[in-house]
Amino acid sequence: MPGTAAEGDRDPTPDAARDRVLVLGATGTLGRQLVAEFVGRGFPVRALARPGTPLPEECRAADEIIRGEITRPESLAHAFQDVGTVVSALGLTRQRDGLGPWDVDYWGNRYALDLAVARGVRRFAYVHVLKADKLAGVPLVEAKSAFVRDLQASPLTATVVCPSGFFSDAEQILAMARRGRVPLVGSGRAKVSFVDVRDLAPVIADAVADGIPWIDVGGPETLTTRQVALMAFDAMGLRPRLLSLPVWLVRAVVAGVGWVAPPSVSGPLRFFARVSSTDMDAPPHGHRRLGDHFKAVVAAEAEAGTGTEAKATGARA
Ligand SMILES: NC(=O)c1ccc[n+]([C@@H]2O[C@H](COP(=O)([O-])OP(=O)(O)OC[C@H]3O[C@@H](n4cnc5c(N)ncnc54)[C@H](OP(=O)(O)O)[C@@H]3O)[C@@H](O)[C@H]2O)c1
């Protein structure tokens, strides 16, 4: 539920001269842009990165890099020392290490919140998902929503950011088009407002500065899933081949998979099925357009001679 912090309860605007910002999930697609954004605004930035994860270029601009696993919080108390604002883009978008969404999206962030409270942090911004209330029953969303409830009940000034899908995730549609066919759930009329993380990061920094308790964020254009699929084929100069799957069939298959496949497979499938049949449109922000991004990805792959399905950074356009 959107929060309702009263005007008078809000913490004063962060002061760039003294307020250290701790970015969790700093090596991720969004996290690295958040590091760049807060550094660009003059804040001292501390970035938390897992041991062994290569540091993206943007993270090198941070004043301090702290290595550690948030799922083992006992070693990380010092990371929260002298921090004014925690910004968490920590989350499990690719299943690995045998951890699930409750381990990372709930407990990882919950440990961070407890450490933040104990160390006197004043503000905590968290990247949730858009329209979580319409995605009930999806384990990832349930874990994130449970953390949001804890955050809103905490004494910290909370900012909950609910973005639509990132351009980097939309690249999966390019990959499907390259394989020959893009499936649509239903007739493909569900709306989506994909956003570039370079447009999202400044919105988050502004929301933190203004003490906004809850913000839904989309990119500058709202498209149907069918339009997105057509854009992917267009970017590659291929004739569109769409496969419309009835919503009831997709739901039945996903429910069946839940009985036979591990949560690491059934969870993302359930998420995909639900977001593909739910309107995921949000108030527009930024100026970067998905069609331009698709074309830039295809051009970069052609130049590199790859044409691979590798996940791009979402920062090429
Ligand atoms: N992608 C989307 O379309 C989308 C849309 C709406 C909301 N969101 C939310 O936005 C947030 C950021 O998404 P993103 O696409 O930037 O994700 P991402 O690229 O996968 O980044 C996630 C970050 O979390 C870290 N992380 C994952 N598991 C961890 C663990 N066990 N311990 C410590 N750190 C761990 C990753 O570290 P490593 O680099 O070491 O793996 C990475 O820094 C997530 O909460 C996601 O749910 C994403």
Q: In terms of topology, how is this protein built?
A:
Layout: E1 21-24, H1 29-40, E2 45-49, E3 64-67, E4 85-88, H2 101-118, E5 123-127, H3 139-153, E6 157-163, H4 167-179, E7 182-185, E8 191-192, H5 197-210, E9 214-217, E10 223-224, H6 225-236, E11 242-245, H7 247-260, H8 263-276, H9 290-304
Parallel strand pairs: 1-2, 1-4, 2-3, 4-5, 5-6, 6-9, 7-11
Antiparallel strand pairs: 8-10
The structure holds NADP nicotinamide-adenine-dinucleotide phosphate.
Taking the alpha carbons of the first and last residues, their distance comes to 34 Å
What is the CATH topology descriptor of one domain?
Answer: Rossmann fold
Give the overall silhouette: globular
What is the CATH C-level name of one domain?
Alpha Beta
Which descriptors would you attach to this protein?
single chain, alpha/beta, Rossmann fold, seven-stranded parallel β-sheet, two-stranded parallel ribbon, 40% helix, disordered N terminus, disordered C terminus
